[in-house]
Amino acid sequence: MSEVIFSIFPSENFVDMGLYQFGWEQCDPSQSFGPAARNHYLFHLCLSGTGTLYAENAKGESITYKIKSGQGFMIFPHQICTYIADHDIPWEYVWIEFDGLRAKETIELAGLSIDQPVYRALYKDIAETMKNEMLYIVNHKEESPFHLIGHLYLFIDSFVRSSTSTKITGGTRLRDFYIKEAITFIEQNFQNDISIEDIAVSCGLNRSYFGKIFREEMGKSPQEFLISYRMTKATELLKLTRLSIADIGNGVGYPNQLHFSRAFKNVYGVSPRQWRNENGGGKTKP
Known about the structure:
Blueprint lengths: L2 E6 L9 E9 L5 E5 L4 E8 L1 E7 L5 E7 L3 E4 L5 E5 L6 E8 L3 H7 L8 E2 L4 H16 L5 H19 L10 H16 L6 H8 L3 H12 L3 H19 L4 H7 L5 H12 L3 H7 L8
Antiparallel strand pairs: 1-2, 2-9, 3-8, 4-7, 4-9, 5-6, 5-8, 7-10
Helix pairs in contact: 2-3, 4-5, 4-6, 7-10
């Protein structure tokens, strides 16, 4: 029987780089996962054994990759993948699912793409540091979110440095400025009736161009990001307060409770009330 450690990160409020879930598993022979798609970037590092990844490339074609100990693979948002442990030498791996403003750029710096998803370390000593950071996160799930995010950044640093010889500069791109301005506007106004046009105007951009660069940098549309941000805030209120569902919906920009419940269920798969009951939230007001 396989052994597994699995944890879900308790907060999604880190914009530059956020952690979603992480774990470790010693798989059974021929154990498989998928076909499935993720909403965020998911990186597996093979610690021992071997396995096979079947992943769609940019053209939608399924490509086969053999993965061995010391190698890893990146699954990209909305990419359909299946991965299977070897029958004779099943793999043991550790994984981290992450996303954020810097995620796409970071992965590109490491030389990975949807057409080249396999990680191969150029510097073994730095790769060892990366592995240790991943295992540290897995084995310290009870630490505070800030503590774990700090180790996520250490993982990212060694992930990039171990797989590329590219010099990483500290320069700020104009696109980063626009995206950060947009996210700041959303953080300060998500509870109001704001439109994507409003967000674009706050950045001094037309809606079409703003939508294009936002999707390219964030991997999702401004509308998708706004909804995700509002739903994250909603889960905080559901868990930490005794506000009614209607009050919470109104507090995150949905004056119509039915519209709020539908939007929430589209993201989390359950109603706000059911989510609160399953996650130990406060009792609602009568």
